[in-house]
Amino acid sequence: MSKFCTSCGKELEAGTKFCHKCGAAVFSISAEAKASPNDIMPHKDFLMSKATEKIKEESNNKANHYAEKIFSDTVPAYELAGEIGLPLELAPFPTDFDGDGLFSVLKSGLGGLMGGFKRTLGDKKRITLVIALTIIWLLVNLLAALGIFPLPLRLLSWLTAAQGNLIGGTIGKGLVAALLAQIIVHKGMLTVLKSGLGQLGSILKSGKGKAVPLLLGSGAVLIVCNMMVSTNLQNTMVCIAGFALSVKALTQNGFLRRLIMGLLPKAKDVTITTIMGGWTLGFALFAVVSLLPGGRNGYLLGILLLVVGSILVITGRNKKGVMAE
């Protein structure tokens, strides 16, 4: 009985060991394993199938590796202008929050803070910076208490955020110290800041539908910032440090992003990113408000923005309800 070449498909005579057309070897098949030519996969199709499986395997490996980067504590900063200009919907951040809730986020944040302290103690550059800032803070406050506060000392006080109350002022000093440490230790800090500013620009350019999260983010940070320091020119370094660190956070999957996800587990990633953009802008607004007389302007403006944002949320829901009816 005749059969077909598995390489080129040419019909073969019984007993033929090599194909007369392509020269491929002919393999004998037992009677039990014989099948019709339509059931036999041609050799080239078999190779294509194997190649496809290999490509799929490599793609899955690359996708898993990329996902590990996304869900780690930090995401590499965008290095190309094209990536910075991506719509927020295409930004490489997880769109759904599958964490263990707000308590878990706070717990991990506290663990990260403690780990930061340990790293500081083991890093000569960091510990030297902390000791130097502590000495400056004590010296500036002591001289100011004695009435010795010339212009150079005021500039040093502003640069290091030496003044402020016990609790909030300590947090403000921590922001300044964190920024200085990042500049000294992190060699790519300027690149990350540039990427963050590009991301902030894309948030503001998109505009449509972003007003509410921007207002809520800005209002929240104005209140938080006023808890740390009073709104006066001497404390604006805290605003600068907060702005820079928040800009950096825009390109990372760090604590701030996870915290907002924990507070708003049903929010889309584009909304989370926009709230972070509003949070970043809030520090810049606080610096502007600090030029006005009075030390509680941050509270006033922050509450106003939160009220306006809440009203827009309610009216937006009402409009959707009316349209649905």
From TrEMBL:
Domain Zinc-ribbon span(s) in chain numbering: 4-25
TM ranges: 127-151, 211-229, 272-292, 298-316
Pfam family, one: Zn_Ribbon_1
Origin superkingdom: Bacteria
Cross-referenced InterPro entries: Zinc_ribbon_dom
Sorted UniProt keywords: Membrane, Transmembrane, Transmembrane helix
Protein name, as recorded: Zinc-ribbon domain-containing protein
Origin species: Proteiniborus ethanoligenes
